[in-house]
Amino acid sequence: MRYFYRLVEGLPTIAVMNALLQNQTKLTDTSITGVQELVVRDSSLVAADRDGAKEFPALKRLALAIMQMIDGTALGRTLLLRAAPKTNVPLGNASLHYAGYAMVLHADPRTLLMAGDETVMIKTGDIWWADMKQDAHLINNSDDDAIVLLADVMVDS
């Protein structure tokens, strides 16, 4: 595979999901029907914590854990996405200086990540590196919501 690599499998997500379920109203609708988001860190040149980091510190801790796991040097855009069943969500492009990671907090095995011409099935507890410089999408083919934390991490080469 050129555009994907599963870093972790089976990571527990119960604590984060419980916090999200208790505060679902904090997620906001996007321009894509059936997709809600919570911005933890913005994607400006100098990334800064947003309301999502204050409301859900566990999300930022997860993103920082990914950064530490890969010896990253800076945390960029960090975004929680909730995709309703049967939605296709464009994930946008990561900066040239950042690598894209997806922590799957909740997903049915029919949920897919696509980048370029490659597709992988994702499941709850997975952490994936994905080449977000490609045309990347989260495709929820299931009958349940998919919830994914996206984090862009700078890695010195």
Structure description:
The chain is an alpha+beta fold and 157 residues long. The protein has one domain: Sandwich (Jelly Rolls), CATH 2.60.120.330. 17% of the residues lie in helices and 41% in strands. The chain contains three helices and eleven strands, in the order βαββααββββββββ. The protein has a seven-stranded antiparallel sheet. A hairpin with a 2-residue loop joins strand 7 and strand 8. The longest helix is centred in the middle third of the chain and has 13 residues. The radius of gyration is 14 Å and the shape is globular. The two termini are 20 Å apart. The mean pLDDT is 87.
Compact description:
The chain is α+β, with helices and mostly antiparallel strands and 157 residues long. Helices cover 17% and strands 41% of the residues.
The strands making up the biggest β-sheet line up spatially as 1-9-6-11-4-3-2
Name of the CATH first level:
Mainly Beta
Number of contiguous helices: 3
- The chain-level mean pLDDT equals 87
What order do the SSEs take from the amino end to the carboxyl end, as H and E?
A: EHEEHHEEEEEEEE
**Unreliable runs, pLDDT <50, ≥5 residues?**
none
General shape: globular
CATH topology: Jelly Rolls
> Superfamily at the CATH H level?
B-lactam Antibiotic, Isopenicillin N Synthase, Chain
Number of domains: 1
